Amino acid sequence: MRRIAYTLAGIIGAGIFWISGITGLAKEEEEHEISYDQVASESERAGSAEVGIEGMTPIYGTDITDGVYEVTVESSSPMFPIEKALLTVENGSMTAVLTMGGQGYLKVYPGTGTQAASSDPSQYIDFQVNEEGKHTFTIPVEALDQPIACAAFSKNREKWYDRFLLFEAESLPKEAVLVDLPDYEALKQAAKEKRIAALREESEQKAAEEAKAADNSDTAEKPETAGAQETANDPSGTSAQPAFIEMEDGEYAIEVEVKGGTGRTTISSPAGLLVRDGQAYARIEWSSTSYDYMLVGGKKYLPLNEEGYSTFEIPITIFNEPMEVIADTTAMSTPHEITYQLIFHGDAIMSKNQTPQAAARRVVYMVFAIMLVCALVSYLNKRKRRS
């Protein structure tokens, strides 16, 4: 009997402990009830960028054949990564299932954070968990090639964050789109040229203001003009001091190695080496047309050209060791600064005529000359036969 009584007492005690635990957990959850009326400030949204390209025109559901398509989505923030998106088009309406790259958001709202905070919670879109255990959101899509506001509620911060998404029409199969799409490369080039023109105007204005300030200064020594190189691409007088090199002034070539970024972009090697007053500068050509400026030692350098592969003239601050630079690319619609390390090999300097580019030009000239000689010989033979 005593053993039975102990057993019953143990069971009753465990039951009381379990009930009290559940009650306490429920009370804790009640005390931590989430409020959805908080919106992240502008400073908290640092890192967000615009999406899309100037000149894009909206592509609506009526312009697309009904079906389900995988579509590329551009997000305004790296904190809202989208791994995959499936677009469903039906009777002119579009929805998209977004597979997220993380689990940091509890809800989304088709609008801004301010609109979400003042809306009824029934209008919020909850996440779903797919068969792979990833969070997904199903949202309405008004149009492709048009920025769409999509506020996201952070699980940790418990605030709404403004996000903008752009669904790219060019990522759909060509036969699915019933209207003509614009020349996206031309739009990117026009946006790049406009941005470079704005940067040049800004640097010229800055240089003029500094020159005026220098003229009005009582100091005998004239300060360096910070914006001169940006306007005229003259590397002299920059904050990033070029390294000294014991070579006669002139143009040479030097082997260069690039590290960093995604690894897909390269620099033509050998690059141009320019020696001025015993100081070294490089003329580098990227394998991309999308770079609109570079930063070396905090100094901004604009491209020498507006068409073709982006080419810059920058100081070489050190040989045989990584030299950190930043290059701003417009390849992702919204400009992004990417950090690279360039290594200029001081033991691999050659004549500019020894570069592969120079050799290729000589081959082209030789082929052209041979073709010209052959054409001339053929013409003379035909003329001789007629006579």
The helix/strand order is HEEEEEHEEEEEEEHHEEEEEEEEH
Q: Find the structural class using helix and strand composition.
A: alpha+beta
Morphology call: extended
Low-pLDDT ranges? 13-31, 222-238
Strand order of the largest sheet: 17-16-19-20-13-14-15-18
Portion in helices: 25-40%
Strand content: 25-35%
Radius of gyration: 31 Å
Amino-to-carboxy terminus distance? 138 Å
How many helix segments?
5
The biggest sheet, with number of strands, parallel, antiparallel or mixed sense and barrel status, is: 8 strands, antiparallel
Number of strands: 20
Instruction: Estimate the mean pLDDT confidence.
Output: 82
Architecture overview:
- By secondary structure, this protein is α+β, with helices and mostly antiparallel strands.
- 27% of the residues lie in helices and 29% in strands.
- The chain has helices at residues 2-31, 113-117, 184-215, 228-232, 356-386; strands spanning 67-70, 73-75, 82-90, 93-100, 105-109, 125-126, 128-129, 135-140, 148-149, 151-154, 160-161, 164-167, 250-260, 271-276, 279-285, 291-296, 299-301, 311-315, 323-329, 336-351.
- An eight-stranded antiparallel beta sheet has the order 17-16-19-20-13-14-15-18. Strands 1-3-4-8-7 form a five-stranded antiparallel beta sheet, with no helix packed on it. The chain has a four-stranded antiparallel beta sheet with strand order 6-5-10-11.
- Residues 13-31 and 222-238 have low confidence and may be disordered.
